[in-house]
Automatic annotation (TrEMBL):
The lineage of its organism: Bacteria, Bacillati, Bacillota, Clostridia, Eubacteriales. This is Pyrroline-5-carboxylate reductase. Residues 159-260 form the Pyrroline-5-carboxylate reductase dimerisation domain. The keyword Plastid does not apply. It catalyses: L-proline + NADP(+) = (S)-1-pyrroline-5-carboxylate + NADPH + 2 H(+); L-proline + NAD(+) = (S)-1-pyrroline-5-carboxylate + NADH + 2 H(+). It is an enzyme of class 1 (oxidoreductase). Keywords: Amino-acid biosynthesis, Cytoplasm, NADP, Oxidoreductase, Proline biosynthesis.
């Protein structure tokens, strides 16, 4: 089995590095290509045994499965190059939401799937999303579950749900960081003697421990709020203020990502 990755930017590099380091792929099973030779050379040097392909076509000819790790806007150019060489024996995997499985099935005879990774897979943690096209075989499903299972907790979902689910798993680290940063900053405004880095460390530790508590006890989010918040107490007062201000916020956030993606999809030229 040879697995190829086209695009050695943030996510391509992250996936190859995490999968090889986790032992999910042997270096000699991996072939990489990127538009800029220096980028693929740097990745190959950091992972001895990983091979370079000198074009997308070269990579496709040598691989059974191909991950397209380019931005949606670059997908058309990559497909124009590789589509004539893609056969029904290839598994073609896209890692963004904008390009749909139907678009890939229309352009190629490949078995197609979508994997939505997350930056937290740098530390081989977090959730990933898997969406399988109808042409995928049992072996394709097993392969992607095995690969992503080595560096994350994979969730197989329907393509219709992938935008909202990606907001949780892929945009999630950014959204949570934004909320956590705002909490730490508010504490620093109230307590000027509290250094910002100490406040941020407190929030990180609390977030990590809250998740561990929930994992170990089986508490839901509602259970956790109830455990901390005694009626008439300070946490209850804080939660009430929060609900008043935050109500509807996340609906707006998810509406914004969905609207942005719809525009990008309209602009796609595959
Ligand atoms: N960032 C996240 O947390 C995240 C999470 C999930 C999914 N994604 C998805 O991952 C995809 C990639 O994002 P990214 O942040 O990794 O982007 P990126 O850093 O810009 O990387 C994209 C890479 O694609 C390469 N490329 C472009 N056109 C090419 C071509 N014709 N042939 C070969 N290589 C080509 C570029 O090559 P050179 O640099 O070599 O020129 C670049 O390194 C996006 O679709 C994004 O939606 C991102």
């Amino acid at each position: 089995m040879r697995v190829g990755f086209i695009g050695m930017g943030n996510m391509g590099r992250l996936l190859v590095t995490a999968l090889v380091r986790a032992g999910a792929l042997r270096p000699d099973e991996v072939i990489i290509h990127s538009r800029t030779a220096e980028k693929r050379r740097r990745v190959a040097e950091s992972l001895p045994g990983v091979q370079q392909a000198y074009s997308g076509t070269d990579l496709v000819r040598r691989c059974d499965a191909v991950f397209l790790c380019v931005k949606p806007g670059d997908t058309g150019a990559v497909l124009a190059e590789i589509a004539p060489y893609i056969t029904r024996d290839h598994l073609l995997v896209v890692i963004n939401n904008t390009v749909t499985l139907a678009m890939l099935e229309e352009r190629t005879p490949a078995r197609v799937a979508k994997v939505i990774p997350s930056v937290v897979q740098t530390v081989a943690r977090g959730a990933s999303l898997l969406i399988f096209g109808e042409r995928c075989t049992h072996g394709d499903r097993a392969l992607l579950v095995r690969l992503m299972g080595a560096i994350s907790r994979p969730h197989v979902i329907a393509e219709a749900d992938v935008r909202a689910a990606s907001d949780l798993t892929s945009c999630g680290p950014a959204f949570l960081s934004c909320a956590f940063q705002a909490l730490a900053e508010a504490a620093c405004r109230r307590a000027p003697g509290l250094p910002r880095e100490v406040a941020e460390a407190m929030v990180r530790e609390t977030a990590r421990a809250t998740c561990e508590l929930m994992e170990q006890t089986g508490y839901s989010f509602a259970d956790t709020m109830q455990r901390v918040s005694t009626p008439g107490g300070v946490t209850a007062a804080g939660l009430a203020a929060m609900r008043e201000r935050v109500g509807g916020l996340w609906d707006q956030v998810l509406a914004a990502t969905a609207a942005h993606e719809a525009v990008k999809r309209e602009q796609l030229d595959l």
